Amino acid sequence: MHDGLGAGSAARRRRNASGNRSDPFRRRQRITAANGRTTAPFVPAEARPADGGQQQGGFGQGDQGGFGQGGQQDGFQQGDQAGFDQGGQHDGFQQGDQAGFDQGGQQDGQDGQDGFDQGEQAAASRARPRHHHCQGRTGQMTTLEHPAPLTGPAVYCDLPGPRSAEYLARQDRREPNARGGPRRLPIAITEGSGSFVRDADGNVFIDFLAGAGVLSLGHNHPELVAAMTAQLSKLTHALDFATPVKDEFSEAQLAMLPEALRSRMKLHFCGPAGTNAVEAALKLCKTATGRGGVVSFQGRFHGSAHAALGLTGPSGSRSGATALPGTQYPPYSSCPRCPAGHDGEPCAATCPDLLERSLHDPDGGLPLPAAVVLELVQGEGGVVPARADFVHRVRELTRELDIPLIVDELQTGCGRTGTWFAFERYGIEPDVIVASKALSGIGSPVSLIIYDERLDSWAPRAQAGAFRGNQLAFAAGARAIQVVNRDSVLDNVVERGYQFEELLSPLASHPWVTDVRGTGLMWGLELTDPRTGAPASELALAVQNHALRRGLIVELGGRGDSVVRLLPPLNVAADVVRTAAGILLAALDSATREAR
């Protein structure tokens, strides 16, 4: 194929891009108690049968928050690894490197010492190295000689362990209050491989934060490491000069676009962070249109630099955020939290109608903006996919009024939703695409905007920057696209998304769960206090805490940080997803028992 894609990948991309107009995800990966779907009732851990009994809620034998010895649950048959052959790679591990998942998950039901139950202690004992250096339950300190392999979760002690605590204490003295992750996830990470990380005390965790979606192929994918290592001795930085590896990266990125866009789109390399790309996109559109205003939807998050944060607008959770002058914030298509008060019933017209009336009303006080900025799935906003009819109306309106449409693909881009960019699933063509996070696949920073050539009205050096030429990121990113196409990684994203849908379906009737929603490998579990209807922020924090102590790293987001978020690597294996889902359900059980 001339575009570098295999026949299967190209056919799949055409099918996805031309999908059902009313539902971009075909099987909408959304689970809610109000959707009329028949789901099994939620069964708390204390009411579930022990190993050997028949499990309810869609889980098979032994599926008590870690899953027992052997079988394939969640409706997947043995070998359902989404295109992974018996001799293939799973998250960069060879066959057999998943040992410990089938025999040793955490089981909830009978709480053990320090919040660990008997099943967890047995699993840790089976996977434990000869010596470990945690401050254990006995209070004794030992030295790590043979650390546990990075093939399954294994937590040996209270967190943080003593060595992690030392690192965290020094970090607290040196770094500002602005730091986030270590406050809620108190570990110091020393090593990562595939879907797993190890902390300074030898504990191993499933990492379903993955650098906030940056590590699309997991930690230290060997082929990406090799590509960066080879480039390291040649050239590492070249501003915006043409180089062979930048040329290869650019060709690969354009080849991943829908065919109709490839010939007319330009690439502009920005500073290292996604927020730099957002600001470059705004500047591009303001220059091209001569206008000053911007439309940004409620619930969005576009970055932490001043202008990008201004698009986000005033927010209690974003210190220092102020509205960007000339920015309007119409409602986003979020049916569970309908701005028109429709009580969860879908309404195709309300949100886009409000925007349309504002833009068409000559006395409405809203001049035509320079751009409309849209997240197709609001990530930091709580994993909220936009409705297809809303997206199509916004695209039609912006085209009618000649307003450039910027799609923010910082988190959804590079395969996160099952297509290379999320806009493909909606069947639209944006004017500007903002991309960053997973472009290199391994965490080496790079950001860019891909935009229609008709907007290219910049003068030379109008948008410059010292860190636009990260040759290491280009080398890794070009190789990452080869891996994605060769290993059918996008197919794996879709299959693992269906797996999450099945595994999390029992939560639809959980009293504290308002909504479980997602697409591909981007999922959110929204928690609400059933007594007050308020966001259950403390419960979400407790779920995150319990999950960490069982060996799973998850993130929080949404309103009041009440949404538990999952962002696994895109090549995550089915058994890792199964183990993580079991840990998450067990963590929710423990947290809700404490909340009663």
What this model shows, in words?
The chain has helices at residues 7-17, 118-127, 162-174, 181-184, 210-213, 222-232, 244-255, 259-262, 274-289, 306-312, 350-360, 388-400, 423-426, 471-486, 489-504, 537-550, 574-595; strands at 30-31, 189-193, 196-199, 204-207, 265-269, 294-296, 327-328, 371-374, 377-378, 384-385, 405-408, 432-435, 448-452, 513-519, 522-527, 552-553, 555-557, 563-566. With 596 residues, the chain is an alpha/beta fold. The chain has 2 domains: 32-133 and 488-595, Alpha-Beta Complex (Aspartate Aminotransferase, domain 1); 238-313 and 325-486, Type I PLP-dependent aspartate aminotransferase-like (Major domain) (Aspartate Aminotransferase, domain 2). The chain has a 7-stranded mixed β-sheet with strand order 5-13-12-11-8-6-7. Helix 15 (489-504) packs parallel to helix 17 (574-595) and helix 16 packs across helix 17. The relative contact order is 0.16. Mean pLDDT is 77; it is low at 1-131 and 136-143.
Could you outline the blueprint of secondary structure elements for this entry?
Layout: H1 7-17, E1 30-31, H2 118-127, H3 162-174, H4 181-184, E2 189-193, E3 196-199, E4 204-207, H5 210-213, H6 222-232, H7 244-255, H8 259-262, E5 265-269, H9 274-289, E6 294-296, H10 306-312, E7 327-328, H11 350-360, E8 371-374, E9 377-378, E10 384-385, H12 388-400, E11 405-408, H13 423-426, E12 432-435, E13 448-452, H14 471-486, H15 489-504, E14 513-519, E15 522-527, H16 537-550, E16 552-553, E17 555-557, E18 563-566, H17 574-595
Parallel strand pairs: 4-16, 6-7, 6-8, 8-11, 11-12
Antiparallel strand pairs: 1-14, 2-3, 3-4, 5-13, 9-10, 12-13, 14-15, 15-18, 17-18
Helix pairs in contact: 6-14, 7-14, 11-12, 15-17, 16-17
